Amino acid sequence: MNFDRAVSPKVEPINRVDIPLPEKFELTNGIPVFSFDLTELDLIRIEIVFKSGSAHEHSTLGADFTAKMLREGTVAKSGKEIADYIDYHGSFIEQTISKDITTFTLFTLTKFVHQTIEVLAEIIDSPIFPENELETLKKNELQKFQVNMQKNSVACKHEFGKLLYPKSHPYFSNVLANDFDVNREQLIQHHKQFLNLSDATIFVAGKVTKDVLKTIDSVIGKVENRNSNKSKIKRIDEVVATKVLLPKNGAVQSAIRIGRLLPFKKSSNDFIPFQVLNTLLGGYFSSRLMANIREDKGFTYGIGSGLLANLSSTIFLIATEVNVNSTNETLKEISFEMDRLKTEKVSNSELSRVKKFMTGSFLRSSDGPFNVSDKYKSSYFHGLDNEFNSLYLSKIQDVSSENVRDLAIKYLNDKDMIEVVVGNR
Amino acid sequence: MIRFEKFTLDNGLRILVHKDQSTPIVAFNLLYDVGARDEMENQTGFAHLFEHLMFGGSININDFDIPLQEAGGENNAFTSNDLTNYYATLPVQNLETAFWLDSDRMLSLAFSEKSLSVQKNVVIEEFKQRYLNQPYGDVWLLLRPLAYTIHPYKWATIGKEIAHIEGAEMPAVRAFFEKHYGPQNAILCVSGNVELDEVSQLALKYFGPLPAREKYVRSIPSEPKQDGYRELTVKRNVPAHAIYKAFHMCERTHPDYHAADLLSDLLSNGHSSRLQRTLVKEQGVFSEISAFIMGSHDAGLFVVTGKIADGIAVEIANNCIDIELEKIKNELVDDHELQKVKNRLESTQMFNEMTALNKAMNLCYYELLGDAALINCEVEKYNAVNSEQIQRVAKEILQKKNCSTLFYLSKNKV
User: Fold this and answer.
1) Is residue A4 part of a domain?
2) Is residue A391 part of a domain?
3) How far is B126 from chain A (nearest CA, A)?
4) pLDDT at residue B100 above 80?
5) Residue A406 belongs to a domain with what CATH number?
6) Which of A10, A301, A376, B328 is most exposed, with the fewest beta carbons within 10 Å of its own?
7) A38 domain-assigned
């Protein structure tokens, strides 16, 4: 069997990715449920999602502490009993708090679905915020914060977050040690106002049988409807350009973060083309930044760029940790790569490669019940309809090298960027 | 139950095929039986550096990543003290691309000087990023040589020191490739919506012609039994004092392994675990604490570690750990508690069966241990552990004379 190893085998393009849509239900009290029944394995992930996050809190860290304290004690069970109950049933409960959204996630085997949904609903519906547990949590979270802030990359991210938004905007963030001394009353208020079970949206993925849905309704479908007002967060996209160096004596690497707000939403016609630009610049292993700063110069273990869409802002950023002696040169090379995208049109072959990678990535991120649910959820909260996902691949294909260059010219300019270096230059 | 087929090529390459019709993605996982424990003491960090070089171009293909991206795929790799694992995920219709790429680099690397020089720098940056520029980053560089005096587990996969990486030269790189990267030393698993026939044909076409190289016979000195308590104290620029206690335990294939694993779970897996409840929540002595086993092939370590809460003296914190360890040695664990950790474990195993890639990695891993079919025996083995066995294993492992303690103290505190 003789063949030429230098010749690649034929590659089939991915022409379409069919993403299953959820089945939609409403609980007895009107709470919407999106169900993704997509596996034969006897397991379930249930997400109880609230459209409120750190942007809504009245005091710093309110959203975070409120969410973390729920499992520390309810009207019916102590924190210890809750922990034991959850662990005994082989289940896992997590909470994630972003600027816009708070999510309580339960992973469980279907055989324990009834017991575990009950305890999940209980901790969201009737927490008591016990004082001892709160004091312990405050101390421990403060220590974790202090350890994390010693990491250059975390300190860099923290500083960047301070500069990105004006102080008056709810997205502004500047957590300090004092902020960990949260007030118990404020947590109770935050919970009352923002974490009403009746305001939740539920996403369930896995082996979602009729029995599972019935259980969810019997446990959560009876909860009283409480009307709470949600403040709308104003969209923010004002550009602030500034350069900051936080010197760190003896640092062997510098953490670098460069970025800005972008004036378009996920639903905008610029979003997907900018994603293509972002991938080309720093969104995959053969990107311009990786090929230059890691694979050619060896300055770093990793460098990348990203596009993040909050509900009221869109962020572009580049992040890396580099040999401290190469800090200045790295900054120069990052500028160089951004400039190159403005002055040279990307070749058809490279653009095509980026699109193929993005297509493969889309395929991977649509694989399995949890991924499908995540994708749907993301569009849902951004107010996008199913077309965003079903047309995604064709929209990527439509992006031209002119589009890429024009977006670079418009948005990838040093003069519009925040640059933070933690280390040395 | 994970079903699979197995066959072996004439050159010794073992191939496992797992059919999974639920996904359009195929996972291609290639495991090489080489890790940091196979290095020479004066040339550490080599297995991991070599992993980086595997992406620098092979004899017929000058870039590994680009053709895979063209096929809509993604890939990565990792190295441990015991093994080096390469994996790619791609649309199942392009499986042949993964066969083409990985067979070429098993055939021969390009061995370019530029790649060696750049990857040395990249790995040095990785060393700094993970181990030197992070609070508590150098713990394992200190704890390993404390616990191990003879066995190669005494150095971390990244290497003992940056100078070893700097000193790597091309002849040693070629020799390493010859010694460890032959088909007789590798296990491949393909997991996805594939048929056995199709995979065998691809395997024969691409890997079949590769000659077997000399089988590497591992001969590693075992670590002598630790004869007395060891301790090391260091001071660093960190915000909190930390304690790391390492105890010697059995090897991965030993009948007591599962009991030791459950013992660590009883201590700190989950919010209801002993150390979490007593030391973190109730006594407020630690802000975080964990007990885990290394899971290494050769006799490994059982580790208990925590960050001490502000205002608590180190000796007191250390004492509190000892008290909890004595408890679990002296009192039989009750049925409820034991069943709890077994339930958690069973749950975790099931969630791990969700992706083709996880299954492929695990199949290769168990084949490396001796038989891929072991993957389906794990839950049974854990369920068979009883309280008496837990107690016996606890008494054997958690002895002071078997312990190496690292006190990692904050320069900034009293």
Assistant:
1) no
2) yes
3) 5
4) yes
5) 3.30.830.10
6) A10
7) yes
CA distance A406 to chain B (A): 25
Instruction: Provide the residue type at A146 as one letter.
Output: Q
Q: Are residues A170 and A315 in the same domain?
A: no
Would an 8 Å CB–CB cutoff place B344 in contact with chain A? yes
pLDDT digits (tens, 9 = 90+) for B315-361: 999 999 999 999 999 999 999 999 999 999 999 999 999 999 999 99
Q: pLDDT tens across A401-413, in order?
A: 999 999 999 999 9
pLDDT at B414 exceeding the cut of 80 = no
Number of H helices, E strands in chain A: 15, 11
Same domain, A292 and A415: yes
Residue A237 is given by DSSP the state -
Q: Tell the residue number behind the tokens 């040095």, with chain if given.
A: B124
How many residue pairs from chains A and B have C-beta atoms closer than 8 A? 207
Nearest chain B CA: its distance from A276 CA (Å): 14
Which B residues in the span 142-201 are in contact with A, Cβ-Cβ below 8 Å?
none
Contact B277/A at CB under 8 A: yes
Confidence of residue A11 (pLDDT cuts 50, 70, 90): very high
pTM (2 d.p.): 0.96
Do A272 and A415 belong to one domain? yes
> Which phi-psi region, left, alpha or beta, contains residue A383 (left: φ > 0; alpha: ψ -120 to 50)?
left
Residue B207: which of B185, B183, B177 has the closest Cα?
B183
At residue A2, the pLDDT reads: 78
**CA angle, corner A276, sides to B101 and B129, nearest 5?**
65
* Candidate from B24, B25, B354 with C-beta closest to A41: B354
Q: Do A367 and B97 touch (CB under 8 A)?
A: no
**What ipTM did this prediction achieve?**
0.94
Q: Are residues A153 and A260 in the same domain?
A: no
| pLDDT band (50, 70, 90) for residue A230 | confident
Domain that includes residue A382, residue range: 242-423
In a domain, A6, yes or no: no
Q: Do B351 and A107 touch (CB under 8 A)?
A: yes
Closest C-alpha among A3, A125, A284, A202 to residue B96: A3
Average pLDDT over residues A189-215: 96
User: Over the stretch B220-244, which tens digit does the pLDDT of each residue have?
Assistant: 999 999 999 999 999 999 999 999 9
pLDDT band at residue B413 using 50, 70 and 90 as cut-offs:
confident
Q: Tell me: pLDDT of A231 over 80.
A: no
Residue A361 and residue B119: Cβ atoms within 8 Å?
A: no
Residues A253, A216 within the same domain: no
Backbone angles phi, psi at A130, to 5 degrees: -60, 140
Does B281 contact A152 at a Cβ distance shorter than 8 Å?
Answer: no
What are the structure tokens assigned to A273, written together?
């083309």
CA pseudo-torsion sign A201, A202, A205, A207: negative
